[in-house]
């Protein structure tokens, strides 16, 4: 068998099962099984798929049909053009969060010495993407989970930014020093009573601690902002990912914590995705 027919076999199985993105899922899984970029699967369809490649691709297919997300099957997820290893303690980074990276890059100087903290780093995706784009920056990445930090350290080494990223175990910002230029976070923001209603691919595979934001979904924002005046220098920036219905509530929390120029950035669907502001102290 060749790569092309193998791809079409998986694609047709996924279509029949009613998966949302059968073509994309099949390309990614066959590409990883064959050791070629998923974007090249179609143009490499005459490449011979060895017995091992076929076995691997069909095993991936079975897992996908059983409800496993593609990223969890591979133990890997792409974010901001980089591949990140996952583990059971990390949230799977998603394309919407790339807006958070864009916001920081577009609103911050490129100069040497710019320092930021990524709170609740998980895989390290946000911090590592920022450092990859800005070779003069220095970052701190915190998480309460030791297993998540192990994953973040591996990813930092993989992308050769480990010498500019300090990884530290901390409950939000409690272990973070003062005088930073920026605080960024994609915190848990799902209301507790909504967690069990999430898509099974999220509910069953992402850690609850990275999803559950308390009764009103705002617990993590409050905890982080309680440290913001200490952590940030004057006119330092905070940037959060937010839920689709949290714009007003989080904006209110920022203003209560003495942030000015509070701004909301919307995703391609027109939903509020990121909120940012500058601390006035």
Provide structural commentary.
This protein is an alpha/beta fold and 281 residues long. It folds into two domains: 72 residues, Helicase, Ruva Protein, domain 3; 204 residues, Rossmann fold (3-Layer(aba) Sandwich). It is 38% helix and 20% strand. The chain contains ten helices and nine strands. The strands form two sheets. A seven-stranded mixed β-sheet has the order 5-4-3-6-7-9-8, sandwiched between helices. Strands 1-2 form a two-stranded antiparallel sheet. The chain is globular, with a radius of gyration of 20 Å. The mean pLDDT is 96. One of its GO terms (biological process) is methylation. Methylates the class 1 translation termination release factors RF1/PrfA and RF2/PrfB on the glutamine residue of the universally conserved GGQ motif.
Which helices and strands occur, and which strands form pairs?
Blueprint: H1 3-17, H2 22-34, H3 51-65, H4 70-74, E1 76-79, E2 82-85, H5 98-106, E3 115-119, H6 125-133, E4 138-143, H7 146-158, E5 165-169, E6 180-185, H8 200-203, H9 219-231, E7 232-241, H10 247-256, E8 259-266, E9 272-279
Parallel strand pairs: 3-4, 3-6, 4-5, 6-7
Antiparallel strand pairs: 1-2, 7-9, 8-9
Helix pairs in contact: 1-2, 1-3, 2-3, 5-6
């Amino acid at each position: 068998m060749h790569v092309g027919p193998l791809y079409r076999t998986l694609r047709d199985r996924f279509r029949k099962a009613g998966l949302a993105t059968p073509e994309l899922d099949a390309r990614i899984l066959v590409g990883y099984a064959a050791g070629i970029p998923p974007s090249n699967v179609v143009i490499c369809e005459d490449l011979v798929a060895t017995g091992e490649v076929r076995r691997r691709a069909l095993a991936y297919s079975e897992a996908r049909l059983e409800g496993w997300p593609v990223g969890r099957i591979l133990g890997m997820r792409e974010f901001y053009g980089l591949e990140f290893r996952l583990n059971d303690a990390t949230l799977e980074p998603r394309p919407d969060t790339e807006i958070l990276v864009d916001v920081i890059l577009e609103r911050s100087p490129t100069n040497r010495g710019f320092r930021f903290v990524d709170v609740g780093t998980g895989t390290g995706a946000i911090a590592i993407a920022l450092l990859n784009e800005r070779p003069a920056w220095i970052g701190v990445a915190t998480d309460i989970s030791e297993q998540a930090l192990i994953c973040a350290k591996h990813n930092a080494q993989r992308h050769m930014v480990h010498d500019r990223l300090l990884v530290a175990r901390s409950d939000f910002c409690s272990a973070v020093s003062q005088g930073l230029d920026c605080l960024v976070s994609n915190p848990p923001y799902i209301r507790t009573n909504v967690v069990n209603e999430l898509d099974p691919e999220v509910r069953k595979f992402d850690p609850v601690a990275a999803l559950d934001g308390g009764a009103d979904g705002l617990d993590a924002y409050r905890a982080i902002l309680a440290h913001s005046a200490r952590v940030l220098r004057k006119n330092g920036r905070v940037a959060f990912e937010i839920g689709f219905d949290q714009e007003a509530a989080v904006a209110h929390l920022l203003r209560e914590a003495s942030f000015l120029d509070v701004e909301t950035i919307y995703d391609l669907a027109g939903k509020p995705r990121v909120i940012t502001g500058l601390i006035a102290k």
